[in-house]
Specification:
Monomer. Keywords: Amino-acid biosynthesis, Aromatic amino acid biosynthesis, ATP-binding, Cytoplasm, Kinase, Magnesium, Metal-binding, Nucleotide-binding, Transferase. Belongs to the shikimate kinase family. The chain has a single domain, classed as P-loop containing nucleotide triphosphate hydrolases (Rossmann fold, 3-Layer(aba) Sandwich). The chain is built from nine helices and five strands; from the N terminus they run E-H-E-H-H-H-E-H-E-H-H-H-E-H. A five-stranded parallel sheet has the order 2-3-1-4-5. Helix 1 crosses helix 9. The radius of gyration is 15 Å and the shape is globular. The chain starts with a strand and ends in a 6-residue tail after the last helix. The structure holds adenosine-5'-diphosphate, shikimate-3-phosphate (S3P) and magnesium ion. Adenosine-5'-diphosphate binds next to helix 1 and helix 9.
């Protein structure tokens, strides 16, 4: 199987849905943030605080290169992985890209725990909704590079997985 790469804004469900999808497909599951944390022995918020965002983006880039060389994996990216066009190009070559989207309200509800998403925390100058709206607008075009997009706002993670499986079958990534 070609890789199935989940992209999308923070809180759209890439990590949780990716894990369920991999289990359903019997494929390997890789969450890029978890992998970077494991390899660095440091959480993502700590990495941002101690080494800076540029350092994190370098780790992300290096990991994409390694992941694009393999197959049979469901890969959950971080919300900003698509900011580097080389990452998108590498993932396009190695698999199919599925974007998870969600409304601002859904993202706010799902990312209300401070201290876990440094990009959102630093954009948030007291108005978290505005921070989400602005970041989403900045990234909208990047997420459009996906082969398929699912609005997850009103769907359960299981329904999202079912939608992805249906799409993979129509594309011949999975046999019906
Ligand atoms: N479809 C969904 N409906 C409701 N809650 C969801 C859905 N998908 C994910 N969540 C919840 O939203 C939060 C963020 O999900 P996560 O998988 O970490 O998103 P991401 O990796 O895209 O940032 C988690 O608490 C998760 O349980
Ligand atoms: O959008 C971003 O720039 C980021 C999203 C995070 O992943 P999730 O989208 O899984 O929260 C994580 O990679 C890091 O905090 C940066
Ligand atoms: Mg995640």
């Amino acid at each position: 199987m070609r890789n199935v790469v989940l992209i999308g804004f923070m809180g759209t469900g890439k990590t949780s849905t990716g894990k369920m999808l991999a289990a359903k497909l019997g494929a390997a599951f890789i969450d890029m943030d978890q992998k970077i944390e494991e390899e660095a022995g440091m959480s993502i918020p700590d990495m941002f605080a101690r080494k800076g965002e540029a350092y994190f983006r370098e780790q992300e880039r290096a990991l994409v290169k390694r992941l694009a060389a393999r197959r049979n994996a469901v890969i959950s990216t971080g919300g900003g992985t698509v900011k580097n066009p080389d990452n998108v190009a590498d993932f396009k070559k190695s698999g199919v890209i599925v974007c998870l989207s969600a409304s601002v309200d859904a993202v706010l509800a799902r990312t209300n725990r401070r201290g876990t998403r440094p990009v959102l925390d630093s954009a948030d100058q007291g108005d978290r909704r505005k921070a989400v709206e602005q970041l989403m607008a900045e990234r909208r075009e990047l997420y459009k590079q996906a082969d398929f997009t699912i609005d997850t706002s009103e769907l359960s993670p299981l329904q999202v997985v079912e939608n992805i499986v249906r799409f993979l079958k129509t594309r011949g990534v999975l046999h019906a």
